[in-house]
Amino acid sequence: MTAPGRPWFHVRPVAPGAWLVAEPSHVNSWLVAGRDRAVLVDTGLGIEPIRPVAEATSGLPVEAVNTHHHFDHAGGNAEFDAVAVHERGVGLLAAGAPPSERAAYLAHTRALLAAAGSYRALDQRFFHLLTDDADPRPLPPAFDAEAWVRSGPPAGPTPRALHDGDVIDLGGRTLTVLHTPGHSPDSLCLFDDRDGLLLGGDTLNSGPIYAQGPESDLEDFARSTARLAGLARDVSLVCMGHFGRGVAEPRYLADVAEAFERLVSGDRSVEFRVQRDCDDVEVREAVFGQLSILVGADPPAADPVR
Ligand SMILES: [Zn+2]
Ligand SMILES: [Zn+2]
Predict the structure, then answer these.
(1) Ligand 1 center–CA 253 separation, angstroms
(2) What is d(CA 150, CA 148) in angstroms, rounded to the nearest whole number?
(3) Is the pLDDT of residue 163 over 90?
(4) pLDDT score, position 2
(5) What are the start-end ranges of the H helices in the chain?
(6) Quick one: which of 19, 78, 132, 209 has the most CB atoms within 10 Å?
């Protein structure tokens, strides 16, 4: 059993007026507050209400921004009065995710929870990596899995369309929109001018970066991550969309960009292994020192398989 009694969300500050709002081992949402308002970057899985958590934490009115339209980043959208997404995500968000995708994710969650007990024991004995950011919670007792699987596109306000270069003013602090396609055509990152946070969504992740989806584009991913690496000097902290290592040092941006560059250039020294993604689809995982990248079952470039 996982430890009882802990809330579904784990909230902790990462910088002045900025918090990780984690669904540990699932999605990392990020709350950034200015003087007048706060923005919640991604609204999570929709397994528990996230708006009350964001408002209680920031003490301010909170608007939502989705880093992209995927259901695990927009699950709480209906709770908010104002939601924004990149212009290419407006239609995708309205279309929603098929129940089969949510069902696959729920099966993945149950498999993860079943494995967590033995993982926790090994971690306590040997590895010491499992923090509150990462330690998965049991599904809440009131969670209606059937209804969640069948739920359609997020209701709520029509999203405002964001564009590259748009600036979201929080009062004494701004978030600048960077359109970073690759994971999906509508993926965006946000750069916080005041404290140098880079909020990466699924463009920057700490475990496998998902580049295997039908809407993913490796060349776009390489261009977008190279652009982010170029900003590293102004970044204090990289904030990522999934998994237990929610934050990384700015140097990580160069690691990610270099990994994508090696993939798209067909570097034959890249190592691959067979992996299954969270939809239980067999994919190939390109393995690098600090990260890995999931790609389709077919080689992505000029057959880099050894
Ligand atoms: Zn995604
Ligand atoms: Zn995601």
Answers:
(1) 18
(2) 5
(3) yes
(4) 42
(5) 51-58, 71-74, 90-95, 99-122, 145-150, 218-230, 251-264
(6) 209
Distance of alpha carbon 247 from its chain centroid, rounded? Answer: 11
Tens digit of pLDDT for each residue in 195-233?
999 999 999 998 899 999 999 999 999 999 999 999 999
In the chain, the DSSP E strands lie at 10-15, 18-22, 28-33, 38-41, 62-65, 83-86, 160-162, 167-169, 174-179, 188-192, 197-199, 208-210, 237-239, 247-248, 271-276, 282-287, 292-295
Tell me the pTM: 0.94
- C-alpha 20 to ligand 2 mean position (Å): 15
142, containing H or E segment:
none
Q: 141, 143, 231: which is closest to 192 by C-alpha?
A: 231
Cβ neighbours of residue 232 closer than 8 Å, sequence gap 6 or more: 250, 251, 253, 254
Give a yes or no: residue 88 inside a domain.
yes
Range of the domain at 54: 10-96+151-295
Does residue 300 lie within any of the structural domains? no
- HSE (CB half, 13 Å, CA atoms) of 11? 17
Ligand nearest to the CA of 26: 2
CA of 243 from ligand 2 middle (Å) equals 10
Using alpha carbons, list the distances in angstroms from residue 19 to 66, 158, 188, 254: 16, 26, 19, 24
Ion ligand 1: residues, CB within 5 A, are 70, 202
**Residues whose CB is under 5 A from ligand 2 (ion)?**
72, 202
**For the chain, how many structural domains are there in total?**
1
Encoded amino acid at 11, one letter: V
Q: Is residue 268 part of a domain?
A: yes
